[in-house]
Each structure stands twice: as C-alpha cells, then as structure tokens.
Inverse folding.
C-alpha cells in the first residue's frame, strides 16, 4: 500500500473542497486533495449554472408568449429543443472550463484521484482510480467536503437507473414531450417551470403541500395561487406510484389518489426526481473512524469553525448540510481549510446573513430569519402585495407578496420571506440590511428611486412600522437618531 503524510487531507474537489485546499495551502500546510468524480464542481457542471441557463431560455420563451399583452405580436415562434440544450451545454462547458483551469493550477502532488474513506480521525484510505491499489494518508486534520446527491424516495429506488435527476436534464439531446416532476422543491420548480415554458407537458407530484422553502403561510398561499394558474400541481397526494409503461412505447405511468381520494393515472416520457438531496457521507466510514453522527448519519458541527466536536475533523459545503448553497460552500471551505491547517489553534468566524433565492418566475427568497425560526411573539411583520405595485404593473409582472420581519421592541430587521418580481435583487438589499443590523427606520432612510420594484419594499417597511411595540421615546430615537 502506498503511504503519504500531509498536514491536511481534503476529501472532495467541489466548491468547498477547492476553497479548503486553497486556504490550507495559503496557511502553509501540505495538502492532499482527493476527488473520485469529474473535476469542475457540482455548481458549474450540473447545478447553479446549467439550471440558470435553461431558465434563461425559458425566460426568452415567456417574454415572447407574454408579448401580446403589450400589443406586440411575434409571428412564427418555434422552440428548437436541441438548440436550447446545446446552448445550455456550450455555455455550461465554458463555466466548467474556468474551474478546470483553476483545478489544474493546483500542484500535481496535491491532487489525488480516487475514492476516500476515513479509517481514523487522522487517517484516510484512498481506493486509487484505475488501479486495485490503496493509498493510506495520515494527516494532522481532515476536511470532509463531499457534497450531496439526489434523494430517491423508497418507492422509486427500484427504478432509480431509469428515472432522471437534475444532472440528467442537461444531457438530454432534445426536450422530451412530457415530464413528471417528483418533488416541487427548489430544483423541481426551477427546472419544471422552465421545461413547461419551453413547451414540455410538465406535472408536479408530492405527498406534501409545501412548495420550495417558503414557510410564511401568507406568502405560501400566494405562491400556491399564482403557480397553480400556470403549472399542473398535484400536492398532498397519496398512494403515489411510478411504473414503466408496458405497451412497448417507453415512458412511465404514474398512479395516485387526488385530494378527493379519487384514483388518477397519467403517462409521461420522463420522470424527474427532485425530492431533495442528501449529504454524501454514507461511504466515508465516519462512525467506525470515531466521528460522532446523529440518527441521520450527520456529524454535528459548529458552523462558525466547521469543526466536528473537538476532533481534528472539519466539514464544509453540502456535506455539512447547514445551508446547501454555493456561497455557503465557498465560505465553509475557506473556514475549514484555514482551521484544519492551524489545528488545534482554530478560529470562529462570523457567518453572513442567510439568503436563499429560488429562480422561478416570480422568484422566491428567504432572507435572515425565515418564518419557521421567527420569534413570532416578539417580531412585527410588514407586507406588500405586488398585485398593484407600480413598476411591477408596468412590466405586467404584478404578482407576489413580500413579508418583512423586525424585532417589535427595537425595530431591528431580522428577515423576510419573498415572492415577487426581481426578488433576487430586493432580497440582497434586505440581507445586507439584516447583516448590518439596520432598523426599519434606517432602511426607510435609504434612497428609493421611482418607479422601481424596490418601492414595494418601502411599502412593506412602512407597514412594518405600524406593527412595532415602541415606546414614544424609542420611536423618536430610532426615527431621528440618538441625539434627539
Ligand atoms: C440543479 C442544482 C441547481 C443549483 N442551483 C444553485 C443556485 O442557483 N445557487 C446556489 O447557491 N446553489 C445552487 N445549488 C447548490 C450548489 O450547487 C451546492 O450547494 C454546491 O455546489 C455544493 O458544493 P460542494 O463543494 O459542497 O459539493 P460538490 O461541488 O458536489 O463537491 C463535492 C465533491 O466531492 C466528491 N466526493 C464525494 N465523495 C467522495 C469521496 N468519498 N472521495 C473522493 N471524492 C468524493 C464529489 O465527486 C464532488 O466532486 C444547486 C444545486 C443543484 C443540484
Ligand atoms: N436557486 C438556488 O439557490 C438553488 C437551486 C437548486 C438547488 N439549490 C439547493 O439544493 C438543495 C436541494 O434542492 P432540492 O430541490 O433537491 O430539495 P428541496 O428540499 O428544495 O425540495 C425537495 C422537495 O421534494 C419534496 N419531497 C420530499 N419527499 C418527497 C417524496 N417522497 N415524493 C415527492 N416529493 C417529495 C419536498 O416536500 C420538497 O418540496 C436546495 O435546498 C438548495 O439548498 C439551490
């Protein structure tokens, strides 16, 4: 068996792993970066970038479809599925190319190809790619950055190889005639709505009623209303079953009971499973290596240090399952790499205000403390409906509801749940306000141009001032500054 000894082993060369190896090497550590899949990261190859490229094509189709609202009548519109998917892959490959160049710049002796598992908290075994050999690497610290994989509900596991995941969509040669989306979460709604707008017959199925990660009941209600005008949603269904069609024409038959308990059946060319993602931890031998795990097999960790307990083991990105998002993976990778290099002298770092955006149309976002974790007794709520908001109406994008939360006694902004036009941008404004500790009054002091969708946020902030519990003196101070 080959043997190596380094300061830090990083398992996984995705966004978190690349950040970790870079931070560890900058801190002067010798590093081994182990990867057994293709280089290029989930984000660039099969995640953020190709999904947004598909959505961009769908946006173009939607603009053409909505053009008659403005008296503009495009003639002879044709969607060429092959061209749509070719552009998705061409642009995706460009993004992947940049990551590959970055990865190739990492010295050869750092990069090891193979599948890793822990045999102790400081020893990693690698089944080397293309050989029967193993390598044993001892280290002062280990970073787990192994990402996540699609979850298949138990009833779909027997058909796993035949069903599609989000990664498969980007490899389709042409757009299929029909797709059943199992799991209307972030990925399911983004890809499903895009496919629908590109002319594919799409239906969504879930035993649950939730859509994406919006928990504020008022916002969720508007989302259900708006999306069900456009999309074929089958939520809260039971006895849901998928089987291969048996008439020799390919495709799948879905059977379920609707809300009235009536049996239903429909046929689809493809079934896209987007029922969530799970951290890639199962084959790492964590428990046997002495790493504590909870009932789901997840090691508890401190998000400010990324350390697991007091061990020389750190976890980052989707593997940590804290906020499985790109910018969080990058941050956690850097924190993990630097702490692993300096172990046991580790530092806690302040994490950014949470922000998560779903690129549907209208878009959804959760900022700061969302509804689920909100201290509802002590937080006020302000809201704006986009139904009659000026700029949204101008653009015929006047759908949605935004609810903003603030501490009732201090007026300090704590979060928002959002559904509406351009919330990818307004969510950032609110996230920056939350992180910088702004009160509702600080935010209202900021400039608001006219006419812009941000004016809707001002309406919500103004309505929020009416739901605070401020004494007259505090309100004056908040409004005009402490000197008054
Ligand atoms: C369709 C889709 C769309 C998305 N869109 C967005 C978006 O718009 N915005 C956003 O913020 N986030 C988005 N995400 C989430 C984002 O892509 C992830 O949060 C992020 O890529 C996670 O990075 P990571 O480094 O943790 O994992 P990865 O990039 O997946 O890296 C993990 C690596 O570890 C390797 N590995 C696993 N096990 C082992 C092992 N035992 N030995 C060796 N190597 C191993 C894997 O091969 C992989 O290369 C999207 C995800 C998907 C799937
Ligand atoms: N725009 C973005 O930032 C973006 C885009 C895509 C993915 N992501 C990240 O990737 C993560 C994973 O996305 P995802 O969409 O796979 O997960 P998700 O948790 O967002 O959605 C899973 C959905 O599947 C449903 N579901 C669960 N079990 C089911 C079952 N047995 N049958 C049918 N439906 C079932 C859930 O109710 C939920 O609606 C997201 O949470 C997010 O962090 C982010």
């Amino acid at each position: 068996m080959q043997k190596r000894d380094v300061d830090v082993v990083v398992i996984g060369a995705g966004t978190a792993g690349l950040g970790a190896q870079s931070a560890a090497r900058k801190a002067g550590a010798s590093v081994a970066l182990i990867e057994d899949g293709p280089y290029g990261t989930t984000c660039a190859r099969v995640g953020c970038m190709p999904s947004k490229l598909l959505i961009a094509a769908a946006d173009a189709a939607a603009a053409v479809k909505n053009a008659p609202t403005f008296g503009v009548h495009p003639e002879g519109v044709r969607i060429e599925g092959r061209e749509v998917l070719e552009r998705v892959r061409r642009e995706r490959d460009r993004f992947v190319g940049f990551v590959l160049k970055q990865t190739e710049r990492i010295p050869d002796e750092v990069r090891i190809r193979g599948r890793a598992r822990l045999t102790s908290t400081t020893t990693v075994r690698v089944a080397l790619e293309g050989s029967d050999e193993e390598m044993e690497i001892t280290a002062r610290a280990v970073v787990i950055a192994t990402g996540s994989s699609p979850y298949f509900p138990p009833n779909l596991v027997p058909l796993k190889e035949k069903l599609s995941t989000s990664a498969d969509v980007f490899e389709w040669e042409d757009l299929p005639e029909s797709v059943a989306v199992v799991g209307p979460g972030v990925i399911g709604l983004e890809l499903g709505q895009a496919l629908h707008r590109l002319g594919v017959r799409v239906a969504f199925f879930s035993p649950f009623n939730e859509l994406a990660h919006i928990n504020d009941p008022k916002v969720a209600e508007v989302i259900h209303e708006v999306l069900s005008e456009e999309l074929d949603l089958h939520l809260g269904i039971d006895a849901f079953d998928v089987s291969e069609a048996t008439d020799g024409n390919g495709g799948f038959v879905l059977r379920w009971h609707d809300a009235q308990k009536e049996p239903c059946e429909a046929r689809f060319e493809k079934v896209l499973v987007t029922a969530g993602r799970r951290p890639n931890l199962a084959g790492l031998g964590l428990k046997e290596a002495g790493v504590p795990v909870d009932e789901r097999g997840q090691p508890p960790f401190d998000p400010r240090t990324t350390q697991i307990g007091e061990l020389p083991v750190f976890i980052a990105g989707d593997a940590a399952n804290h906020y499985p998002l790109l910018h969080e993976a990058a941050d956690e990778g850097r924190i993990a790499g630097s702490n692993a290099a300096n172990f046991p002298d580790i530092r806690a770092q302040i994490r950014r205000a949470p922000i998560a955006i779903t690129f549907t149309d209208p878009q959804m976002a959760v900022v700061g403390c969302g509804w689920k974790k909100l201290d509802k007794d002590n937080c006020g709520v302000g809201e704006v409906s986009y139904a009659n908001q000026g700029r949204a109406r101008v653009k015929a994008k006047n759908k949605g509801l935004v609810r903003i939360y603030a501490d009732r006694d201090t007026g300090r902004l704590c979060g928002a749940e959002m559904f509406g036009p351009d919330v990818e941008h307004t969510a950032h404004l609110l996230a920056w306000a939350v992180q910088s500790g702004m009160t509702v009054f600080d935010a209202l002091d900021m400039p608001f141009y006219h006419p812009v969708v941000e004016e809707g946020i001002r309406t919500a902030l103004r309505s929020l001032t009416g739901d605070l519990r401020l004494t007259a003196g505090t309100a004056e101070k908040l409004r005009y500054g402490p000197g008054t």
Observations:
- The two ends are 74 Å apart (CA to CA).
- Residues 355-480 form a domain with the Enolase-like; domain 1 fold (CATH 3.30.390.30).
- The chain has three domains: 2-45+90-148+278-342, 154-275, 355-480.
- The longest helix spans residues 81-104.
